[in-house]
Design a protein that fits this description.
The complex is a heterotrimer.
Chain A (H helix, E strand, L loop, with lengths): L3 E9 L5 E10 L4 E5 L6 H8 L7 E6 L2 E2 L4 H7 E4 L3 H4 L5 H11 L4 H15 L14 H13 L5 E5 L7 H16 L3 E5 L12 E6 L2 E6 L1 H4 L26
Parallel strand pairs in A: 3-8, 3-9, 6-7, 7-8
Antiparallel strand pairs in A: 1-2, 1-4, 4-5, 9-10
Chain B lengths: L1 H5 L8 H4 L2 H17 L3 H17 L4 H25 L15 H27 L2 H12 L7 H30 L9 H29 L15 H18 L1
Helix pairs in contact in B: 3-6, 3-7, 3-10, 4-6, 4-10, 5-6, 7-8, 8-9
Chain C lengths: L1 H28 L3 E2 L8 E2 L1 H29 L12 H4 L4 H17 L7 H27 L3 H8 L4 H27 L1
Antiparallel strand pairs in C: 1-2
Helix pairs in contact in C: 1-2, 2-4, 2-7, 4-5, 5-6, 5-7
The chains are: A alpha/beta, B mainly alpha, C mainly alpha.
Bound molecules: adenosine-5'-diphosphate and magnesium ion.
Adenosine-5'-diphosphate binds next to helix 1 of chain A.
Chain lengths: ~250, ~250, ~190
């Protein structure tokens, strides 16, 4: 059974925009899935359905075979979503307080909140900065903070919405390493990006979205040759293999 | 506008900075009340000298104090002058200025004294209390109040101060972008405000939506873990001093 | 049932964020001043954002937003125009305007069109709200400063009239442009 699945998922906004249409996607436990597509192809809208932030116009999302609408809190705990703009995800006055936000929402006892915060900060290597103001962090550190905030909810699946946007080279490397580490520790990863050259080497599967539809789905080495048809830059030069597509040495 | 993001909090590690936020708010209240009740000369002198010690204890820079005072200096002056001339009473002997009454001057001075106490106490409180503690203290006081959802109020306080630097940043960027396109040549003020405010509202509404989604994604709930407060002996001592000052002024 | 409660909870969260956003805008509005071609008094945008708050959030949430603003100031945070704060300001000469913000936001929130957009109705609401604002501010100014009626009107209303007109105009245009979209989002 797939850990996460969508059937006929369709979202029409009140203004008539059909953002996604008939998306059927199955994600298996432990997979590293890259979702690519040009701007406006519906990637963010899809991501927001996967933890119930948006209600489908038609179709459903299933987590472990159960519709997520049955227990939305459970879905949000299990499916962590790291937003494209880390600024909008930061709600704490200090780094530690921000990470505590999720566990506090779950009404965990104070001692447990403290423990989870410590663990999550240690996991992303931000323990030293616990008392800093989030706005004083670098771009890469802000993304890591957003990740720590998600980790504090102990999710099984983590979705990254364009995690490399606005990061410099060291920032990208920092975040990429973090994502790979999370994959190694057993998390299922969904990574939304159009910058395939930075990450595709590590993916098990590549999915392409175009105009709200899922137009290609398969092994990276087979799907990659069709990306240009759908408005994503072909990252491979002649003779190069998919394994070359990473910013890690 | 840079100082707005700091909101006058000055990070130091002193007794006052570490003090429990709830007791601090109580002290704020006591001093504000004391300012209201003060009547005799020593009623002003005692709270003012205690506050002066507090400023020294908290190691607050006096430049901040002066900056705060700047706004009020003029008001105080005007009130003293206006009152001195308009309140009827006994003329002051040997005064070079005609028409000044003793009662007028003393009313003016009282007003100034009151203002000064309120000013200093709020400066001490805001200068030594990070927003977090402040918010948690407010939340604590609202817990027994019926019909006020304290968790929501705390969230609102938090978000307000989170959003201010964000809005200011995008505002500054927009101003720069428009100035580089010569917006100052526009004479029509309606147009100018429009150019200023529309993109600001547009951007901040979008930002607010994103924040709401992000909070929801992290299971936002108003039934949440409550802050654990810690207050030590020194904190109670501070409260006791404030109480003493209050009763001294009252009696 | 579970669907419904999650929906209303997320609605409450959305309004909480908006209310905080408008409080932030009111605070910032106190720091932004725009010089006018006529008269010596620059436009300050705090009351403008109070009007917008009423139009956008309606009575209940608008009032919450402004009440938060006043409480923060009363507790000593430098949120009033020019970065001032405290009871001294709240009960000082200009305190009437600050309490008047409560009247302004609630009357605009109550009177402005809530279902169908009507610019005329929004305009009437804004005008009524401003009458209440200055109706509170000017007598207060007179009472606190011993200025006398003529002086109070001259200092507390006349110089602001051009600004008031501009702010009302911009606020109603703004409502026309943004409100339909805003309401769409906030009912989604
Ligand atoms: N709140 C909204 N109202 C109307 N249309 C929207 C809204 N949010 C997104 N859209 C539209 O939905 C489509 C998909 O958007 P999105 O998922 O953000 O694209 P991507 O993340 O792939 O760049 C776009 O055409 C966008 O304009
Ligand atoms: Mg997107």
């Amino acid at each position: 059974m797939p850990i996460l699945e969508t059937r006929d998922l369709t979202h029409v906004f009140p203004d008539g925009t059909v953002a996604i249409e008939d998306i059927d996607l199955k994600v298996n436990e432990g997979e590293f899935l890259v979702i690519a597509g040009p701007n406006g192809s519906g990637k963010t809208v899809l991501a927001r359905h996967l933890n119930g932030l948006l209600k489908p116009t038609r179709g459903q999302v299933f987590l472990n075979g159960e519709p997520i609408s049955k227990n939305i809190i459970e879905a949000r705990k299990n499916v962590g979503l790291v937003f494209q703009d880390p600024e909008s995800q930061i709600v704490g006055q200090t780094v530690a307080e921000d990470v505590a936000f999720g566990p506090e929402n779950l009404n965990l006892p104070v001692a447990q909140v403290e423990m989870v915060v410590k663990e999550s900060l240690a996991a992303v290597g931000l323990s030293q900065l616990a008392t800093r103001s989030p706005h004083a962090l670098s771009g890469g550190e802000k993304r890591k903070l957003a990740i720590a905030g998600i980790l504090a909810m102990k999710p099984k699946i983590i979705i990254f919405d364009e995690p490399f946007t606005g990061l410099d080279y060291p920032g990208v490397v920092q975040v990429l390493k973090e994502i790979l580490r999370l994959h190694k520790t057993g998390h299922t990863i969904l990574l939304i990006t159009h910058e395939l050259e930075k990450v595709l080497a590590h993916a098990d599967r590549l999915v392409i979205m175009h105009k709200g539809r899922l137009v290609a789905d398969g092994k990276p080495e087979s799907v990659i040759y069709r990306v240009e048809e759908y408005g994503v830059r072909m990252p491979l030069r002649d003779g190069e293999k998919v394994e070359a597509l990473t910013w890690l040495k | 506008m840079a100082e707005m993001t700091l909101f006058h909090y000055i990070h130091k590690n002193t007794v006052l900075h570490r003090m429990d936020g709830r007791l601090k708010l109580a002290c704020l209240l006591l001093f504000s009340l004391a300012a209201g009740f003060a009547s005799e000369f020593h009623d002003y002198l005692v709270p003012l000298s205690v506050l002066f010690c507090a400023i020294l204890l908290a190691k607050l820079p006096f430049t901040t104090l002066l900056r705060e005072m700047r706004f009020f200096g003029l008001i105080i002056l005007i009130v003293i002058v206006v009152n001195s001339f308009t309140i009827p009473g006994d003329p002051i002997a040997n005064s070079p200025l005609a028409g000044i009454s003793q009662q007028g001057v003393s009313t003016g001075l009282r007003f100034a004294g009151r203002l000064l106490i309120v000013l200093l106490v709020s400066m001490v409180i805001t200068g030594t209390t990070p927003l977090m503690k402040f918010r948690d203290a407010v939340e604590w006081y609202l817990r027994p109040v019926p019909f006020v959802p304290e968790a929501r109020v705390a969230t609102m306080i938090n978000l307000t101060f989170l959003l201010i630097p964000v809005i200011l940043d995008s505002f500054r960027e927009m101003m720069d972008a428009q100035n580089s396109r010569c917006v100052q040549l526009r004479k029509n003020p309606v147009k100018r405000i429009k150019f200023l405010v529309f993109p600001l509202i547009d951007q901040t509404l979008r930002r607010a939506d994103e924040i709401a989604y992000a909070m929801e994604a992290r299971c936002y709930s108003e039934i949440r873990t409550r802050t654990a407060f810690k207050c030590g002996k020194i904190d109670w001592l501070m409260l006791a001093i404030s109480l003493a000052v209050f009763f001294f002024v009252l009696l | 049932m579970a669907e419904k409660t999650t929906a209303s909870r997320s609605m409450n969260l959305r309004m909480t964020v908006y209310a905080a956003l408008f409080t932030a805008l009111i605070i910032i509005g106190g720091y932004i001043s725009i010089p006018l071609p006529v008269g010596p008094v620059p436009i300050v945008l705090a009351d403008f954002f109070v009007m917008i708050t009423g139009l956008f959030l309606g009575f209940k949430w608008g009032l919450a937003s402004v009440a938060l603003y006043l409480s923060l100031g009363a507790l000593g945070l430098p949120v009033f125009a020019g970065g001032r704060s405290g009871l001294a300001v709240l009960f000082g000469p200009t305190g009437g305007y600050l309490f008047g913000y409560l009247l302004l936001v609630s009357s605009v929130g109550l009177l402005a069109s809530n279902r169908k957009e009507s610019t005329v109705r929004n305009l009437m609401a804004l005008i009524a709200g401003n009458i209440l604002l200055y109706g509170a501010g000017v007598p207060w100014l007179k009472a606190v400063t011993n200025l006398g009626w003529a002086g109070a009107w001259a200092a507390g209303l006349i110089p602001f009239i051009p600004g008031i007109i501009i702010k009302i105009a911009v606020a109603s245009i703004l409502a026309r442009v943004f409100l339909p979209r805003f309401k769409e989002i906030s009912v989604q």
